[in-house]
Amino acid sequence: MKQKTFISKVILLLFILFVWRKELPAQQYNCNFKEPLLTIDFSAGENEKNINELSLPKYRQDFSTCPNDGYYSFVSNTSNCFNDDWLTLNEDHTLNDADGKMMLVNANETGGVFFNVTINGLKENTTYQLAAWLVNVCKIRGGCAPLPPNINMILIAPDGKKVASFQTGLLSQNPTVQWKGYSANFTTPQDITTLILTMEDKTHGGCGNDFAMDDVTVRECVMSTPNVATDVNPLPKPEEKKTSDVSKPAEKPVTNITKPPEKKIIIAKPSPVKKDSGAIVIEKKVMDTPEIALPKIKDKLPAFPVPQPILTRETPLIRRIETAAGEIIIDLYDNGQIDGDTVSIYHNNELIVSGAALSDKPISFRIKVDNMHPHHELVMVADNLGSIPPNTSLMIITANNKRYEVFISSSEQKNAKIAIDLKE
After folding, report:
1. pTM, full prediction
2. What pLDDT, on the 0 to 100 scale, is given for residue 143?
């Protein structure tokens, strides 16, 4: 009995240590971050200047809390936008800022650059972290088909050469305000101390493709390298006792030990804590597609729990596609007579389209297939059967100039799954 109790305690202790270790925040490159070189929190007060330094072909600044398609504004909150199709944001993301503001973007129907700023004072051949906080402001089951934004962040040298680029991936919709942090590291080239940061929305379509951004930062990464103790000097051999001189006492061996210096423990300062506006805050790393030599780590599938519509219904695999690395465009139409069919789509168990009405106009979104994201599962869930059962649709997948047509039939008992894999 005592042996069983002892084993149980050991197992419990190992479990606690494992969970505690998992909850430690991961830190890229073992960085100790300096104070931000650049911080953009969009300020406070009545008169917010336009942060964009260069003209934007597809966007204009507005001054309302509910800007229209192709406009952006700097606001402290939103309220009842577009018949309450948007979430209500009562405050921005920055901690403890009175009347703090965020950048609110109502997407242009053809995507495009919505943000640009110059980063000065950089050091050459130095690693930095770029970070930003974003939230999809469109409600689940809003007034139009969801088109999750996909933000591409690009760093450009003064001569126009691209230094690095990072994508956030789809900003999923949520029932409540959930700010998510995105971060990635980059290294400045030799002789470069100034970079231009631009951000563009890769998703096409204005309705459902709307978001807010706050707290853009650039911080230098100082690599943490532990000090190494110097070697202890070896002991000299003692002098041998001379047999011919018995009256002279033998000398004691000389011991010359140099005390090693104490090791210094460097503790990385934690990143500043941001407020979550009373909602859940999830930090998420961006999909890293650097133009420079950055370490590539193969991501695992997002750890989203299997949703109820997939757990409780049959979900057969109806098509598997293998393709080379690249961006995949997915368009979804009603197949046949438009009869009021509505669907939801899950990407690797994450809801990315909710309650969308099928028609002759596509529901479009994009995913990226590469070594870091080699496997994708799309599950089509019928929300209703329309006036002519079953729920039928046509999915057109465009990958590396190849077009795949997938005819889908789903019901309240059966879903349909499509798998897309990176070709080995």
Report:
1. 0.53
2. 63
Determine the 3-state secondary structure of 369 from DSSP: strand
For residue 304, the Cα-to-chain-centroid distance in whole angstroms is 14
Q: Is the separation of the CB atoms in 219 and 27 below 8 Å?
A: no
3-state secondary structure of 16: helix
CA-nearest of 420, 392, 409, 417 to 329 is 420
Q: Is residue 157 within 8 Å of residue 163, measured between CB atoms?
A: yes
In 3D, which of 299, 327, 318, 337 has the Cα closest to residue 418? Answer: 318
Alpha helix segments (H runs only) across 175-322: 308-311
Q: pLDDT tens digits for 346-397?
A: 999 888 887 788 888 888 888 989 888 899 999 999 888 777 778 888 999 9
* E-only strand ranges, 304-341: 317-323, 326-334
Residue type at position 276: D
Q: Which residues, 6 or more positions from 255, have their beta carbon under 8 angstroms from its beta carbon?
A: 235, 236
- 8-state DSSP, 17: H
Which residue type sits at 328? I
Tell me the CA distances in angstroms from 6 to 12, 16, 258, 410, one per residue in order: 10, 16, 44, 54
- Report whether pLDDT(255) > 50: no
Residues facing 406 on adjacent strands:
395
Phi, psi dihedrals of residue 242, rounded to the nearest 5°: -80, 125
The Cα 43–Cα 215 span in angstroms is 10
Per the model's pLDDT, the better-predicted residue between 5 and 211 turns out to be 211
Closest of 177, 153, 7, 169 to residue 92, by C-alpha: 177
Strand bridging mode 71-75 / 60-61: parallel
What average pLDDT does this structure show over 151-170? 92
